[in-house]
Amino acid sequence: MGQLNLFDSIIEQLKQEIVDDIKPFFEDLKKSHQPIMPNEYMSRKEVCKMLGINLSTLWVWTNKSKLKSYGIGNRVYYKRTEVEAAVIELKK
Question: Residue 1 carries which DSSP code?
């Protein structure tokens, strides 16, 4: 029985060493291969509704570079992530 317990202990130590050796490799692999999230584009009306503002305020914020707009033809869009990032926490 003594030899069996020693053998089990050696096997467990070996398993742990293998896991410890390959864990950093998999963590690096997971960091470098994150799925690309598609951009969600919002119309001007959607942004105004989301922020509770009117179109003229959105136009002013865009011209002051507070929000970045994108366009195709005569359509104007905003990235949801950029709109959300533009809203900052106020310090009290």
Answer: -
